[in-house]
Write a structure and sequence with these properties.
Layout lengths: L5 E9 L8 H25 L8 E3 L1 H10 L2 H12 L3 E3 L13 H18 L5 E6 L8 H6 L4 E6 L11 E5 L5 E7 L13 E10 L6 H14 L4 E4 L2 H8 L8 E2 L15 H19 L8 H10 L11 H4 L8 H10 L23 H20 L3 H13 L12 E3 L5 E4 L2 E5 L5 E6 L4 E3 L5 E8 L2 H11 L3 H11 L15 E3 L2 E9 L3 E9 L3 H4 L6 E9 L4 E9 L8 E7 L10 E4 L2 E3 L13 E2 L3 E6 L2 E7 L4 E4 L18 E7 L14 E11 L4
Parallel strand pairs: 1-8, 1-9, 2-3, 4-5, 5-7, 6-10
Antiparallel strand pairs: 6-7, 11-18, 12-13, 13-14, 14-15, 16-17, 16-22, 18-19, 19-20, 20-21, 21-30, 22-29, 23-24, 23-26, 25-28, 26-27, 27-30, 28-29
Length: 692
């Protein structure tokens, strides 16, 4: 191995905007304690002789927030530290679930570092994300056109990390590329044959702030002893990137998608993610109409707040702020929530998980961290003028579920498994409310009994599901089980009464009727599930699927209205599935950050089971094309519904696409229960080619 001559030490702490406390308190701690401490430390060591120095690296958002909100004296100190390279930013604002973003919002995040570069005469070419185990190749073209050439990705140490080389060139379909360093922890040492420079991360934990001066001195002494011939230097990702880019031509090339194996967490709060997506669409409409200037301060604040929604922290740490392994079943959960005080756990089996728990814990405090995350939407709206804010408010009103009342004279009762001419299609509906036959005006069959459209299902989970998931996905338990068992599991679930089972349930049609309009035909299918599912679990008491068939084109609008959903702490999931009949199902593509990607082209131990899509799923085959757009629910499984499954297999795409409307299977960070009423909207456009 090449002798190391220079060891680039990157001092960093992991930013969770929340998790260790309410997000507001976390940010206050950074602004009033951690950043001033970093300034003090860097200033003190800068005055001392010798090579022991301190350079603190953060995402651009934190520095931008400090410069915006700090008092003049502290702002001056920060600017001096920036000019002297003692405080530095990398090319991204913070760690996000990239698949939840669109290209414009992602680009806005990068613009924070670009503007800081322009303001202070810097040139940022490196970026970093931490904790989230995987990301989409859709970001590569955007990063390249913003001159980000090196990306460090540090994965959570207890989650399967993608099977990729530690250093590689990640090349997108359009030829854009960047060098990636992947590690199976927040940041580890990197040494490459042929390179005299090595990389070393000096990390403090989640929201721990900078190290003490004693710890810095000890680290330098330790590293100098380990690398006696090397210069130990407090450095930056940019400085190391310049060195590693010299060997870019020697690195292996990866062209596959990786994906985000945490993405199912996005469906833990469907209300928030649906309104976030609505605001992204409205932003585009306002820009196109000249109502919102992308160069304005209003736009910048709007995007800044909106960007906090896909930030990877969605709530408090469960085993610190709740730690209740006794109250899972519906009655016990409702009583504990009403009591709003968590007592010491009675389940001795999991006593080892109680070490970090707060003495005073409550359900309301824990839930407030999820509301705080929703408040980012209000903060984004507050940046807009009154007219645009009112327009957004009207859009949100339209998102509320509820079926318009029609008189008996307006309604025509339909029978299941009977064909009807609706719009440009001949349609039949199954006993579960889905479309089980769909033929267009060219005679093309798009759905049959084996390939149905609009299938609702509700899934419950048991301890056996988590046992399998831990076997397939969770790593390093020997070291980290004291927190991983909670974060990725549901400790105590096996003691709930009645004992949870893994089952999938399908509704039956309670009523089916047609409303004819001058330009469209609307079919309403009222659905019914067994009553024990909303008494013991969390399925909505009232559900209706509305199908709208336009008379002038081949588009079908699908809405699922889900009302009176009880909060449920038992692990649950709801799905709406579309299984169109296609000749060449391998042609399906999903959209992420503007890129069309195949669900079948994902690396081993990337997420082959579940994705988040920007606008939808698209098919172009010899017989025609399909656009399956999802307005509100971005998380989707190709081939078959797969939660708590990580076996590296690809489900056959002939099995269609299964949108995860909601789940609460995570054990921490994301919302643990959900009780809002929802309307989930989809658009299906089917265009057949004339065939021989």
């Amino acid at each position: 191995m090449t002798t190391i001559k220079r060891l680039h030490v990157i001092f960093k702490t992991h930013l969770d905007i929340g998790f260790t406390d309410l997000a507001e308190r976390v940010l206050e701690r950074y602004m009033t304690q951690f950043i001033p401490q970093a300034l003090d430390l860097s200033e003190q060591l800068a005055l001392e002789e010798g090579n022991v120095k301190f350079v603190w690296t953060t995402g651009s958002w934190l520095i931008n927030e400090f410069l915006t909100t700090a008092q003049p004296e502290m702002r001056d100190r920060m600017e001096k530290a920036i000019r002297e390279n003692r405080i530095v930013w990398h090319g991204l604002p913070f760690t996000t679930h990239r698949e939840l973003m669109d290209a414009k919002l992602f680009e806005f995040g990068i613009s924070l570092s670009r503007k800081l570069d322009e303001r202070y005469g810097k040139k940022t070419i490196a970026a970093k994300m931490t904790d989230v185990t995987g990301h989409t190749i859709g970001m590569v073209p955007i990063l390249e056109r913003n001159n980000i050439q090196f990306l460090h990705l540090g994965a959570n140490p207890v989650c399967k990390h993608p099977q990729v080389p530690p250093v590689f060139v990640w090349r997108a379909a359009d030829g854009s590329e960047l060098v990636v360093n992947y590690t199976n922890d927040y940041g580890t040492q990197l040494q490459i044959e042929g390179l005299e420079d090595a990389l070393y991360f000096a990390y403090t934990g989640d929201n721990h702030g900078p190290p003490s001066i004693e710890d810095v001195r000890k680290l330098y002494a330790l590293l100098q002893e380990k690398y006696p011939e090397a210069t130990i230097m407090a450095s930056t990702l940019d400085a190391f990137a310049e060195k590693i880019l010299e060997l870019k031509h020697q690195l292996p090339v990866i062209t596959e998608e990786i994906g985000d194996s945490w993405i199912h967490g996005a469906a833990s709060d469907p209300w928030k993610i649906a309104r976030y997506r609505e605001l992204l669409r409205l932003r585009d409409q306002w820009i196109d109409a000249g109502k919102l200037d992308p160069q304005s301060e209003s736009y910048a604040v709007f995007c800044n707040r909106l960007m906090l929604v896909p930030e990877h922290t969605w709530g408090m740490n469960e085993h610190v702020y709740l730690l209740d392994y006794d109250h899972y079943s519906a009655a016990n959960f409702a009583a504990a929530r009403a009591r709003d005080k968590v007592s010491e756990p009675r389940t001795d089996k999991y006593a080892y998980l109680s070490w970090p728990a707060k003495a005073e814990r409550s359900y309301s405090m824990f839930e407030s961290s999820w509301k705080e995350q929703r408040d980012y939407l209000d903060q984004a709206l507050a940046a807009l003028d009154d007219a645009l804010a009112a327009e957004a408010g009207e859009a949100f009103e339209r998102m509320k579920p509820g079926i318009e009342h029609f008189s008996e004279n307006e309604r025509v009762t339909l029978e299941v498994n009977e064909c009807y001419d609706l719009g440009q299609f001949r349609v039949s509906f199954g006993s579960d409310g889905s479309i089980n036959e769909l033929v267009d005006s060219n005679g093309k069959l798009w759905a049959d009994d084996e390939h149905r459209l609009g299938i609702y299902s509700y899934e419950t989970f048991a301890k056996e599901n988590y046992d399998r998931f831990f076997k397939e996905y969770v790593t390093n338990l020997k070291v980290h089980h004291r927190w991983a068992d909670n974060d990725l599991g549901k400790p105590g679930l096996e003691y709930a009464e009645p004992r949870p089972e893994h089952k999938r349930y399908f509704p039956v049609v309670k009523s089916l009727y047609l409303i004819q309009k001058s330009d469209r035909s609307i079919v309403l299918a009222e659905l019914k599930l067994p009553s024990f599912l909303y008494e013991q679990y969390g399925t909505p008491r009232k559900m209706t699927i509305a199908y709208t068939f336009l008379h002038t084109d081949s588009q079908i609008e699908v809405e699922l209205h889900a009302m009176e959903k009880p909060a449920c702490r038992l692990p649950e999931s709801a799905w709406l599935s579309f299984v169109p009949l296609t000749d060449s199902p391998h042609h399906w593509k999903m959209e992420k950050l503007g890129a069309r990607l195949s669900p079948l082209f994902v690396v081993k131990d990337g997420n082959r089971n579940m994705h988040s899509v920007e606008n939808g799923i698209y098919y172009e085959g010899p017989e025609g094309s399909i656009a399956l757009e999802t307005l509100d629910a971005p998380v989707v499984c190709p081939g078959e519904p797969r939660l708590l499954q990580f076996d590296n297999s690809f489900a056959p795409l002939d099995g269609g696409f299964h949108f995860n409307l909601h789940n609460n299977v995570w054990g921490t960070n994301f919302a643990m229960w959900f009780e809002d009423e929802m309307k989930y909207r989809f658009r299906l456009t089917l265009l057949a080619n004339r065939m021989l």
